[in-house]
């Protein structure tokens, strides 16, 4: 069963962090003229109407992107958010915030003429919507396909540089473990690609297991040095609190060297600006091993 609809969550705090990171990665790829490829295994519908039924029934964006735009942003935060907010602003030229970019739209709007994107979406109606959205964009290929199964076959891309985003819905209990296994063929075949893995901070045991398991496996296989792994998490309430998702973040393999500095400015600011109650916080660290350096603020 596929019940997850991202339209109910588009633009929330978790999207803000994930999409700011993706936009920074894309921006960094553009520093060199050589083309790159974006591979998005769980693409969604591409962009979201914040005036639509789903967003009206579940206006999570009001405590996410809307607050980011309303809050005064110091220069370092502005720099960290620049490529992301550039897209959000380009989609919202009127007085109100009405549209929000999904990961495909961020790619579409930040890519250049010769860059390419390969998008997988398994949900039938969503895949159709996504396909229609980019039908006239020759840079973008859409496939209705299981993104997990596709990953290993889609890397390394011809361009030999680029970004892989794995952003599953986590509607099944064992999705974290499933993701951990499904990404291994792709990491083995393309250890130099930049990979962004999104995961919720809900079952903290499961997310820790994912992070540590991934780092240890990468070292054991000789695929990545400790400094090639970065983990960034944000929580807007006490993680132990009941109810809606309180925290989430990304694990990035081969992050651009500029990302850590941007996140160090961005995360404390986001934790304050997007707080929904007591116990908001953030964490930024490298390889998740015993001797790793860690910055945390609770
Ligand atoms: N990456 C998108 C973004 O940032 O805008 C949001 C993606 S949403 C969190 C997850 C999507 O994965 C949903 O649209 C869902 O239909 C789709 N999906 C679920 N299982 C899938 C699978 N095995 N392969 C590809 N897509 C899948």
TrEMBL record:
Residues binding S-adenosyl-L-methionine: 19, 42, 103, 121, 146-147, 167
EC number(s) from the headed UniProt entry: 2.1.1.266
UniProt keyword S-adenosyl-L-methionine, yes or no: yes
Keyword S-adenosyl-L-methionine: yes
Residues at the catalytic site: 167
InterPro entries: RlmJ, SAM-dependent_MTases_sf
SUPFAM superfamilies: S-adenosyl-L-methionine-dependent methyltransferases (SSF53335)
Site positions (Interaction with substrate rRNA): 4
UniProt keyword list: Methyltransferase, RNA-binding, rRNA processing, S-adenosyl-L-methionine, Transferase
Entries under Pfam families matching the protein: RsmJ
Reaction catalyzed: adenosine(2030) in 23S rRNA + S-adenosyl-L-methionine = N(6)-methyladenosine(2030) in 23S rRNA + S-adenosyl-L-homocysteine + H(+)
Family: Belongs to the RlmJ family.
Described function: Specifically methylates the adenine in position 2030 of 23S rRNA.
Subunit structure of this chain's protein: Monomer.
Protein name: Ribosomal RNA large subunit methyltransferase J
Organism field: Hyphobacterium marinum
Gene (name only): rlmJ
